[in-house]
Specification:
Layout: E1 5-9, E2 12-16, E3 22-23, E4 29-32, E5 35-38, E6 40-45, E7 51-59, E8 62-69, E9 81-88, E10 92-99, E11 105-114, H1 120-124, E12 134-137, E13 142-146, E14 150-156, E15 165-166, E16 172-181, E17 186-197, E18 218-221, H2 224-239, E19 241-243, E20 256-258, H3 270-279, H4 286-296, E21 317-318, E22 323-324, E23 330-331, E24 334-335, H5 341-354, H6 359-381, E25 423-424, H7 425-444, H8 448-468, E26 470-472, E27 480-482, E28 485-486, H9 511-522, E29 552-553, H10 554-566, H11 570-586, E30 594-595, H12 618-621, H13 623-632, E31 634-637, E32 642-645, E33 653-660, E34 663-669, E35 675-676, E36 685-686
Helix pairs in contact: 2-13, 3-4, 3-5, 4-5, 4-6, 5-6, 5-7, 6-7, 7-8, 9-11, 10-11, 10-13
Length: about 700
């Protein structure tokens, strides 16, 4: 995937090799709503393929491929025919030929097309589906394919001058011949790719019609890496936007959210979409509102073993149809198999409230948050240790149900796979943070008794956590570390993992615990020099190219940086942040979902790509805004109408275009670490 050129305009995308020729291999093709509409689109000029000389991203949804065609009759080695293909996700491409030579050129232009109309789940598994027969042309201006699973068409703006033919099972060919170009002349044709799944999925996310629910902030700093990470990330997030077709029916704004990632997860994902919206809260609450409503409408209502649905539980992922995924997983279109999306839903509502989500929206969403919290309380009440565990009810669902959800996501210090039921450490932190946040919101809504019950529950969870999750370390940077999970017994799972970094901002750790975790995160066992490894490099089972067993995840590093800044561990935060920013320069600031966890000190000139990573990916693209907010130390408190801005580093930086309570906000940090907030919304005050 790291060599694939992706342009995306959710829910559509196109994946191409660097020469732009689609040959039906691997992930190549035009896609929409998880359906591959075309896998072959090959251009021939006089029976030859043009020679590629360059590829350029024009925007997240558009890319230009440039090639040349040489004429053996020319008396120069210079190419005389320039070929450009501008490919646009969700539309098609424009092919341009330009004669820059001194001779007239006569060309036969052929465009061969084919498809298998495969589901994205089959493409990801590497399955080869039989080609769908081409049914011929549409009045001489296109080709068409139909199957039981979908329908696709290739249309053109100009009538073909040769026959538009179906070439049997491999597809069809559009031909323009002759195309005569005198010196200096150009020729152009646009082909459009359209299609749909059969039957069309009801309620599936659609392309937004409204503009982005945020404005790009203006960041003035000497560190260009940070500026570009924010800027390029927001461009990718724009392309990853989706809208809920079930929302906005009253004439209001669309309910927009961020898809998890392209190409594999271009849809609504509970945890991923929630984290992306949470990271972007400093730019306004509209995205959080849309994300919350999209998930609230699909909140669990009944007990269903196949969907793993339960009353109050928040959706894990939404697909057009039930599909067979890798490792024998059969996942329904509405799947609830995650343990963390539900508490994260509660926390996003609370944080959006603090950033100024209007009271009417907060009150309308509050019942959904209460139902979500009720699911958390009931789930922990059923557990003998009072922890929030996952234990999948069926063997063909997700085995691990937090963000580390691969088959071997949880290993002990000996490298052995640990099976559910498991209580992951960061999930307890999410639950603790959600309970305290919801208690504060209920207290502000004059419901003190319910608020106190939640506070009492959170206090008890914090004590259980302290008793069960800490393990001693004989040779680490601190005398103890937080176990990745607690299993049967309850037995903590040995072996340090990055999960403990996500605890720092939840409040479940005391001051000493935060100090110990910070020491681990900055240690070379975890800090690869390019970001935070997902597993300690010092334990068996570490693999720098393992999905969750040693690779670096962009969002995991950003969350750890935020937690380190929030708890005052600025030196450790700076070490991780600079590695992340340096990695961004090597990825062209389009940060992948994850990349290899090889040590920078081993002489690697650049971070290595993880072969199957999504790129662009939602919470990776949002990580630039997350670390920017962490450096500024922004903490709004809507109940008290105060804003704290406690910078984490002594670096001059000015940021304009942030949003608090629906109004523009600017923050300036000086060389000595001082901070100024020139103007606050009416009724708010700055507390330093």
């Amino acid at each position: 995937m790291h060599d694939v050129v992706i342009c995306v305009d959710a829910p559509a995308f196109a994946a191409s090799p660097r020469d732009g020729q689609l040959r039906g291999a691997h992930v190549q093709g035009f896609y929409d709503h998880d359906r591959r509409l075309l896998h072959t689109l090959c251009l021939l000029l006089n029976d030859r393929e043009p020679e590629p000389i360059g590829v350029q991203s024009l925007s997240p949804h558009q890319v230009r491929f440039t090639a040349v065609l040489r004429d053996p009759r020319d008396r120069t080695d210079d190419p005389t025919m320039i070929v450009e293909r501008v490919r646009t996700a969700g539309m098609g491409e424009t092919i341009s030929l330009r004669n820059v030579g001194t001779r007239e050129r006569r060309l036969r232009v052929e465009l061969a097309a084919a498809t298998d109309l495969a589901d994205i789940a089959d493409v990801k598994r590497g399955l080869r589906r039989a080609p769908v027969p081409c049914t011929g042309s549409r009045g001489g201006v296109g080709l068409e394919w139909r199957s039981a699973s979908g329908h696709a068409e290739l249309r053109t703006t100009a009538s073909v001058t040769g026959p538009a033919v179906a070439d049997g099972p491999e597809g069809g060919t559009l031909t323009w011949s002759p195309v005569v170009l005198r010196p200096g002349e150009s020729w152009q044709v646009t082909v459009t790719v359209v299609g749909r799944a059969v039957p069309e999925p009801p309620g599936h996310p659609i392309r937004p019609g409204d503009p982005t629910p945020w404005s790009e902030p203006f960041v003035e700093t000497d560190d260009r890496r940070l500026r570009d990470l924010v800027s390029w990330g927001l461009r990718d997030l724009d392309a990853l936007r989706l809208a809920d077709p079930l929302g906005g029916t009253d004439g209001g704004a669309e309910d927009q959210f961020i898809a998890a990632g392209c190409p594999w997860y271009l849809t609504l994902f509970g945890r991923d979409s929630l984290w992306s919206a949470r990271m972007l809260l400093p730019l306004g609450t509209d995205l959080a509102r849309g994300t919350l409503w999209a998930l609230a409408r699909r909140q669990g209502k009944e007990h269903d073993v196949f969907r793993e649905e339960a009353p109050g539980r928040i959706l894990h992922e939404l697909r057009p149809a039930t599909a067979l995924h890798g490792n024998g997983m059969l996942l329904p279109s509405h799947y609830y198999g995650s343990v963390d999306a539900t508490p994260l839903f509660v926390t996003l509502l609370v944080e959006a409230w603090h950033w100024g989500l209007p009271d009417a929206e907060v009150d309308a969403l509050l019942p959904y948050a209460e139902r979500a919290m009720r699911w958390v309380l009931e789930r922990t009440g059923e557990d003998t240790d009072g922890l929030l565990r996952y234990n999948p009810p069926r063997p063909d669902g997700l085995r691990h149900q937090s963000w580390k959800d691969s088959e071997d996501a949880v290993r002990d210090a000996e490298g052995r796979h640990i099976e559910p039921p498991l209580a992951l450490c960061e999930v307890q932190g999410y639950a603790y943070e959600a309970a305290n946040g919801l208690a504060e919101l209920l207290q502000h809504r004059n419901r003190p008794d319910e608020a106190q019950q939640l506070l009492n529950w959170a206090t008890a969870l914090k004590k259980r956590f302290a008793d069960l999750f800490w393990l001693p370390s004989a040779d680490g940077p601190a005398a103890r570390y937080v176990a990745i999970a607690v299993g049967h017994g309850p037995t903590p799972v040995s072996g340090p993992a990055s999960n403990m970094g996500q605890l720092l901002s939840t409040g479940i750790l005391d001051e000493d615990g935060c100090r110990d975790v910070a020491a681990w995160l900055a240690h070379p066992q975890f800090n690869s020099g390019w970001g935070l490894r997902s597993r300690s490099a010092a334990v068996p089972g570490f693999n720098p190219l393992s999905y969750h067993g040693g690779s670096v995840w962009t969002h995991d590093t950003a969350i750890a940086v935020g937690g380190l800044c929030a708890t005052g561990h600025h030196r450790e935060a700076q070490a991780l942040l600079h590695g992340l920013l340096d990695a961004a320069t090597h990825f062209g600031y389009r940060m992948p979902e994850l990349y290899a966890g090889d040590a920078r000190s081993n002489g690697s000139p650049a971070p290595l790509a993880y072969p199957a990573a999504c790129r662009p990916q939602g919470w990776s693209a949002a990580s630039g805004v997350a670390v920017l907010a962490a450096l500024l130390g922004l903490r709004p408190d809507t109940a008290r109408r105060t804003l704290a801005a406690r910078p984490a580093m002594r670096v001059p930086i000015k940021v304009r275009g942030l949003v608090l309570d629906g109004r523009p906000l600017a923050v300036e940090v000086t060389e000595d670490g001082g901070c100024a907030v020139p103007e606050l919304p009416e009724g708010w005050r700055y507390v330093g």
